[in-house]
Amino acid sequence: MRRTEKEQRDLINKIKRIEGQVRGVQRMVEEDRYCIDILTQVQAARAALTQVGLAILENHAKGCVVQAIEQGDASVIEEMLASVRNFVK
Q: 5-87 in CATH: which number?
C-alpha cells in the first residue's frame, strides 16, 4: 500500500529536520562543545528517527501486511516481526 501524498510529504519533512539535527551535532563536535549538550542533541535525533521508523512500520502493518494476508500470504507476518525485532535493537 502506498502512502498518501500528505504522509509522504510529512515523512520527508521529518527526515529533513533530522538531517539538520545531525548536521548540528557535527557542528557541535567540530566546535568542541560540551559533551552533555552534544549527547542531548544525539538523543533528540535518535528519538526523531524512531518516530519516522514507527510511522513507516504502522503504514506497513495497516497496508502491506493486511493486503498480503487478505491475499492469503501469511508469510508477511514473520517478515513484519523480523522487521520489528531489528527496529527495536
A: 1.20.58.1000
